[in-house]
Amino acid sequence: MLRGVTVVTGPRPCKARQPPTRCGAANTGGPTAPKLRLTFFDFKSFVEPVRLAFHMGGIEFEDVRVTFEEFAAMRDSLPFGQVPILEVDGLVVSQTLAHLRYAGRLAGLYPEDPVAAMLVDECLYVVTDVEAALVPTMRMRDAAAQEEKMALRKELAEETLPRWCSMIENRMASNGWSHAAGDELNVADLFVYTLGLWMRKGVLDGIPTTILDGYPKLWRRGQGGSQPEGRGLERTALKPRSRGSWFGSGRGSMSGLVR
Ligand SMILES: N[C@@H](CCC(=O)N[C@@H](CS)C(=O)NCC(=O)O)C(=O)O
Q: PROSITE patterns under this entry (predicted)?
């Protein structure tokens, strides 16, 4: 039995349902709202922005958290052998960015304008690139690999991450954007925010928690900026539209989001 969440006994096969022909309207619990189940491990990772987008839009979804053992048991039944998966009325879909854009459309956090949407996509892929630079060092767990890992982290802290952060900062500044990819809060901000929290948390040896301090547009303290930090975020940007606060809700790792 899972810890306080619904057990996934194996998603239905993709062929069970045909994809909808158009994007659904906001799913705030109406009779035609699709039934949504998001399945991942019980940590934030890159799935957190999807959960946040659903939450901000007041969109009902089942937040299924599986253990590694449960994932191993279900892996062969998954379309690409990976989590996260999002089930939409039984249709099983993989890939976080697909989930995030879908959640953003339902929640009104993804632009309809094609160019504005492309700019959001640009930011999402930039964040994916930054993440991709960090992830290999996460896998270096053996004692023998520590020296190499710390050398790579030093390069990340002193060169790679500052270069990416400067480019995002400059992109915002030169376009006069108040947010990560435009003038309104959207899923790009949620993605940048989640990555930023992780980088600043002190859990990545060799990456200083001050890593984003020199980028006031990218990571602005207090309220009103692209990535308002901490409790300011709870009060403003991530305020859910129709339900109680995500923060402090005691839902697994979610309550720790702003720590
Ligand atoms: N590009 C995929 C990556 C998903 C992914 O790597 N998931 C990992 C868990 S964090 C997984 O399921 N790994 C198992 C495997 O690939 O066998 C996404 O964004 O959803």
A: GST_NTER
Q: Whose CA is nearest to atom 1 of ligand 1?
A: 95
Give ligand 1 pocket residues (Cβ under 6 A). Answer: 81-84, 94-96
**CA dist list (Å): 72 to 14, 75, 91, 243, 253:** 19, 5, 21, 34, 21
Looking at domain 14-107, its CATH class is alpha beta
Tens of pLDDT, residues 9-50: 444 433 334 444 333 345 556 667 899 999 999 988 889 999
Residue 198 CB burial class (10 angstroms; 0-12, 13-18, ≥19): middle
246 pLDDT exceeds 70? no
Where in the chain are the domains? 14-107, 114-241
Check for a shared fold between 14-107 and 114-241.
no
Atom of ligand 1 nearest to the CA of 82: 12
Question: Each residue of 165-201: pLDDT tens digit?
Answer: 999 999 999 999 988 999 988 999 999 988 888 888 8
Q: How far apart are CA 119 and CA 182, in angstroms?
A: 8
Whether residue 108 is predicted with pLDDT greater than 90 in this model: the reply is: yes
Structure tokens at 26: 């906001």
Overall average pLDDT of the 81-104 stretch? 97
CA of 84, closest atom in ligand 1? 20
Q: Cα(167) to centroid of ligand 1, in Å?
A: 27
**Domain 114-241 adopts which CATH fold?**
Glutathione S-transferase Yfyf (Class Pi); Chain A, domain 2 (1.20.1050)
